[in-house]
Design brief:
By secondary structure, the chain is mainly β. Helices cover 15% and strands 46% of the residues.
Length: 149
């Protein structure tokens, strides 16, 4: 049990460190003069193109309280009651259209049928299609998927 708890805490800590380095989109105003090219287009915006809107659904199974971390349009980490579902609309834009965006969910631990802690089962669905899972909690890996248009 101690190994499982240590593994879960290590995975959550690593995931927080990795996803904590991301950035949130906060620029809602017009581009400043220093951020525009000679043609008047915003630098790095790929001509302001936007991709197709997507619905991303994060799910974590099990029962009871658990810590869950997910990375969609921004990073989140909170205490939830299982089973848990979160839907986020996402639309890629600019450079994201070429490289994509990784979406992920790191489930907390739940008590298995043998009484030992194990990762809660997780899934990610994009536009109604399941694109990632952790084999019903058999894998200690988080659920993650590279969203591309």
């Amino acid at each position: 049990m101690r190994k499982t708890a240590t593994l879960t805490i290590s995975l959550l800590a690593a995931a927080v460190l990795v996803t904590g380095c991301g950035s949130e989109k906060k620029d809602t105003g017009p581009a400043r003069a220093s951020e525009t090219s000679a043609g008047g287009e915003a630098k790095g915006s790929a001509s302001g193109k936007k991709g197709v809107p997507h619905q991303v659904v994060f799910e974590v199974g099990g029962t009871g309280p658990a810590q869950v971390m997910w990375n969609g349009s921004s990073n989140h980490f909170e205490q939830v009651t299982l089973p848990w579902t979160k839907t986020e609309p996402m639309q890629l834009e600019g450079a994201e259209l070429k490289v994509g965006v990784t979406v992920s969910v790191v489930p907390g631990s739940v008590k298995g049928s043998d009484g030992m802690l194990k990762p809660a089962p997780c899934t990610i669905k994009v536009d109604g299609k399941q694109v990632a899972d952790n084999q019903n909690g058999k894998s200690a890996e988080p659920c993650e998927y590279k969203l591309k248009d």
